[in-house]
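Internal ticket #5521
Category: modeling
Description: The requester needs a full-assembly model to guide mutagenesis choices. All entity lines are attached below as received. Residue total reported by intake: 1508.
Assigned to: D.W.
Attached entities:
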Amino acid sequence: MQKTKYSSGILQYIPFFYVIWSDDLLSASEIEVVKKSFEHDESLIDSDKNTMLEWLKRDHPPANTELKNWKHTISNSGVKLVESETYPLSSFSQKLVCSYKSECPFNEQLKHIEINLGIQPNHYNHLFEVAVVHEKTSNYYNASELDALLKGEHAEHLDAFRALLADPIFDWQIKRNKEDFRQKVLEQVKFLGAKGYGAMAYPKAYGGIENMPAYAHIFENLMYVDGSLAIKFGVQVGLFGGSIQKLGTKKHHDHYLQDAGAVKLLGCFAMTETRHGSNVRGIRTTATYIKETEQIVIHTPGKNDNKEYIGNALHAKMATVFAQLIVAGKNEGVHAILVPLRNENHELLPGITVEDNGYKLGLNGVDNGKIWFDQVLVPRENLLNKYGDIDTTGTYQSEIKNPNKRFFTMLGTLVGGRICVARAGLGGAKMALTIAVKYALGRRQFNDSVKIQEDLIMDYPTHQLRLTPKVAECYVHSITLDHIMQAYADDTSNDKRKIETQVAGLKSIITWFANDAIQECREACGGKGYLIENRIADLKGDVDIFTTFEGDNTVLLQLAAKGILSDFNSEFNSAGFSSVLKLLGSQISDKLTTINPVYSNKIDKEHLFNTKFHRHAFQYRTRRLTYTLAMRIRSYIKKGMPSYQAFLKVQDHLLALGKAYSHELAYHMYVNFTENIADEKNRLLFEKLGTLYALNQIKENAFWFLEQGYIGSTKSKAIRQRVERLCSELRPHMEVLVDGFGIPDHLMTAPITN
Amino acid sequence: MQKTKYSSGILQYIPFFYVIWSDDLLSASEIEVVKKSFEHDESLIDSDKNTMLEWLKRDHPPANTELKNWKHTISNSGVKLVESETYPLSSFSQKLVCSYKSECPFNEQLKHIEINLGIQPNHYNHLFEVAVVHEKTSNYYNASELDALLKGEHAEHLDAFRALLADPIFDWQIKRNKEDFRQKVLEQVKFLGAKGYGAMAYPKAYGGIENMPAYAHIFENLMYVDGSLAIKFGVQVGLFGGSIQKLGTKKHHDHYLQDAGAVKLLGCFAMTETRHGSNVRGIRTTATYIKETEQIVIHTPGKNDNKEYIGNALHAKMATVFAQLIVAGKNEGVHAILVPLRNENHELLPGITVEDNGYKLGLNGVDNGKIWFDQVLVPRENLLNKYGDIDTTGTYQSEIKNPNKRFFTMLGTLVGGRICVARAGLGGAKMALTIAVKYALGRRQFNDSVKIQEDLIMDYPTHQLRLTPKVAECYVHSITLDHIMQAYADDTSNDKRKIETQVAGLKSIITWFANDAIQECREACGGKGYLIENRIADLKGDVDIFTTFEGDNTVLLQLAAKGILSDFNSEFNSAGFSSVLKLLGSQISDKLTTINPVYSNKIDKEHLFNTKFHRHAFQYRTRRLTYTLAMRIRSYIKKGMPSYQAFLKVQDHLLALGKAYSHELAYHMYVNFTENIADEKNRLLFEKLGTLYALNQIKENAFWFLEQGYIGSTKSKAIRQRVERLCSELRPHMEVLVDGFGIPDHLMTAPITN
């Protein structure tokens, strides 16, 4: 038995006081937690309580000599810290008292502090200078429960699909030569088609189960196999098949849809041209109707007006070609026409030229190519005529009279693809983060001179800051994308325009997030992350282009911002636009209350962790940006500037609004989901992940909130500290969190994760 | 002759007023410029002056109806705007008066305003609704003059070298198979060796010209050919040859140095181990001296203690191996020993195992491999013995008694390599930016409905914001790296430790900058940037690892921060460390004056463009971060926390300080350079680039400056506006600016740049 000057009553609290004061995060409410524990602690006499109350004064913290006494008391105890215990600090305290005194009952009040202050072993294990029984990872949470929450109602489909991915056809290997790689991916796509997965989103009559949301999940899982596979599969069944499904009518469905889904008819989606990527309305390919023969002539007018970057261009038998439809000499705008490209022997048909796009930064298993049409004839029936048709008399017909609206309705069919691209990006981020986290839990580097073993790199605060907020963001966006897909797939919805705007924004922030996450993982794994065998390199190369295709992110964000400005319905450039902006401005202005200085400097944990605060901050930002944007544009227009130019002047502001709105939306959807998790333990975890996401977002945009006076300096720093602290709190659960992504073991082939 | 209600005197000023008021950037000092022009303008009568003075009141701006009148006056004039004129707005004004009145002399006062307000055609050409004779690029500056300023005293070497790079051996081609690629790069390296470029940094006696600074420039230029070539060349002559030069003595130089430089003796640099990358001191390979035979036994103790990621491992005949030197049973710390790897027939020598690292994200032309040694014997002479030797009696000798200092002295030899890596990263960024800018000057997308031609994407504000600050940063870092290399190459300097610290920081910020720049260029070029043929993809893959090798950036920045904290000399973890921190704290505290609110909200152009403001902001940030860091660490230590743990707790703060210091340093060096540019026109341009860099840095870290109250909200917004404005002002010069990087035409092979 050692000697100590402290009473038993005080002794049991000493580890707690030492932990509390070694850091500077003690808030008023946390002091209350500790005080309350004294009050309910029957083992304490009044003089003990008074002594300890003295130690709880934020303005008069205990002297450093006192802290050193505590430290010696702890170090000299010879007690081991066992991280895997349910209440490691309370257990440690109990054993500490035992080592000095004869009696040592377990004190429930200590447990109460430990829980309510969220004290984690990795916050204090380095402070004690005692033997530590380390725990690399905690099993407090259960990965398959987390996975189940993310899978939601698609669990059955996903489990079957993940099992299928164990088929040797999906074995990962390095493929440098594009011809071999494309051949391999083609076989995989055909295999999936044969198993029925290509038709998942199609009606039952064509081999499907009409389940687009489940399809999106499967699409994400394909990223764990290979990015090229996901994209080629998406081109075949989502873009080519999808265009037939959404733009065609029964005759096209009956002819082609089943074969497209079963990957028996290979096709491509020929929209983009070399000179027209983002500006689809300006494409130059023409589809001229010949009344006499009831044929359509597909033609590429200039050398550089070819279709560009068309996935499946080298394997396809047919293409959905977007072209300016000219009927009786009048341009009726962009329409889609099915054009056969090759015959049964895979020879190009007359008038068609295809050129390989060659090697790319990634996705080399996808055969992208350029296509030219030289007066190619197809029958009138090949026009995908759901939104515009040519009747037997050679007259153009459409139920949508406004050509602008017609164009956007047709483009609306791309929206599902955008959700899937975001989903695939997210899958890439999850894969990279899983690899990086597992590596960080095995890799050691540097140490304290007294230690034999070097530290795990996952225990470095900078490493935690690199990876943990990104893991949290993956959880948030998993839910976000589920919700937006459900909204999109709901045919009864009247909010189509709004959903399209939201998808545009979410696709942008999520694909950028995915790229950042993968890059961070590459660097976090050092040179090992650079080796192809460890998978992150390919993910980086593959996901990179997601920020560009299916809509360039900067263009999409401007689209989103314009949608917000017009409240998702009014047309731009119209005469009344200025008054729309004025109305919008005054509406928002009423809601933008002045921020109270007490609020802008409130740093209590209860406040910072409150979803109300997060929601308010996100909403304030969106509203304020909308208001100032509307006012700026209006002022330019009033000075006589054409609205096109006015929008150019505020381009950066548009991007900021698009991002702000999308993050608000993502958090909103996520919180709605977490509030309904039945199991409390998991609900609290999901809430914590949401809090980390929200605080990290505010931290990343702190300059703006500070500029607006929405947060003060103290609050800005407190938010930063809370982000660091949350990362540290989640440290023991990192492995479970990434396992919760549900990436099948048979696809985790990176040698550094073993 | 049209009609107008304005007098000739006023009429000539109308385009100026319209331009000024269409924007919101008019500052007090700019109003003064305009007022002064009135005063000196003899063509004005008093009533004209009074009318126009009314139009200059910031608090009572002209009514929108007045602006519309101006606009109509301009639009109805039928005058063309010719952007290529020397003073386009003044000329336009002159012609405007001519179109309404009979006499129209050129007014010098207008020219005065145009110059002093920095009004550029691209600020107003969209406002006028008149015919515009566009200028894609301006020839006001001369690219070869800019190039000459960047080449400095190395012009002769560089010009010769760039001409040599036209040799067909450097022709760019896609190489997917690593064996072919490596063979090609090997031939190129041998070619450069034969031409004498390998020995540039070596003494004359060994075939060189002892010019390390010129070598660094050449190294940057190799990136324009291929990243693998640069890196393999650097491994051979910089790391392998460099280790012989810097760690060896005359016997080694005489034996090996000439052949290393001429690339006749291929070698590698075997430092990193699988389990020890950043923590070199912990490497496990042993070099045990056997007194009896005067031999050293090189041995890899465990399966995972192999040398890892060693460049040239498959081609090398010899390696500089870093190992724990054990003499008479005592570990004398890490030393370098020359170890032959293969015989003349390129067969591995007994006891040596080499394994290919396989495919990587980039640099696949470099043969990286793993090496194991199984009791390999080399003679005593093979110890590179400049800093530590074994004498003939078998006793270890070193002039540097402190093992710690000895270790860091040896590692100091890596510093030159770090500068070169940063230089190569910079070269990658320049190449990517050149491609992206040229593409943006050719690519059109979208347009105003009234225009026939779509807009150049370089004319989009967001595109300018993406690329222009990065072009400016390339200029800044070109100068920075020149200066730091000169300091490093100066053998008489006593500041070795300080220079090493500075290099650590600069290498980190520049390689990160390079990666960001290349990524931005990839996205700015859309799908075209993704094609290998357009070069950016390979640059991305190659430069990616620069953030990791030659020192991981996060580790280097911590090193830099610790150097700053210790004022570049004192040892850490020593007993007196806490008092060093205390002293440092009080020293800085005296200098950290409170920021005056007038200063923190000063937004005049003269102030925002003043280098004094930039320097002060950078310095304030470094000092403040140093002070708060020192105080935090000291407080932890006083509470009894071991210093190793205290440093862990502040890891993120260390990174922030390392970055802040490095940016301050870069700007400091750059300004010293620009102040001495003789030619005024170019000096002003360089100053403008420096201003853009400085303001952009403050903008990027605005959250911190706002938190500290160093800048207020108004100033933060003004800085953002100035960054946008500077990008717009530099828009006409973008092509000349990237041409100023001096990348030879014969290496600009990307099809999108043509």
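Resolution: model delivered.
Comment from assignee: Chain A has a mean pLDDT of 91.
Ticket closed.
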